[in-house]
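ok so i was messing around last nite and threw this chain in just to see what happens. nothing serious, just curious
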Amino acid sequence: MSFVIGITGQTGAGKGTAAKILAKNNMAYIDCDLVARDVVEVGSKTLDKLCDAFSNSILNADGTLNRPELAKTAFSSPQSVRLLNSITHPAIIDKINEMINEMDKNGEKYIVLDAPTLIESGAAGICDVIITVVADEDVRLSRIMERDNIDCDAAQRRMSAQPKPDFYIENSDYTVYNNGDIESLTEQISRIYDDILRNYIT
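result:
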């Protein structure tokens, strides 16, 4: 069976960049953000459930999901976040398992699973090793605003909807601190990769 390395962390911490650096070591790569998009395509059961929960106001005129509108609604309260997760997480996990099984059949030995809600969703159980990427709050805030082209209040709502860094660290095998440049991040990932090879992969 393929060896699965999960990478997670709070929004803006840089886990996606870390996952891609790790995947360069001849590893297959699953981007759970893309999986999350796939499971809410027009006609999907998951999209229907989201509409039932949050109304059709989360749809664009062509019937596709209006992600900014869903985010505005779903991140408005902890209860709404839990409702969103209860709908999307099971569908995402099912799709991830399907992809891993297919990759395993194709002979992939190592898979990097880039998942923002790896631990909260229960997808951690799929992984052999978990890496958390963390960064200071002000660094994350700046990155989110630039990445998603949103204002400070919207970025802070997204940040406050997630657990604190300790939650991720305590549930992981390794922690990467990503407040610096790409060279520092690459060096940390390289050390962790070497340690995984020594301690987990024979």
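not much to say yet. The chain has a mean pLDDT of 94.
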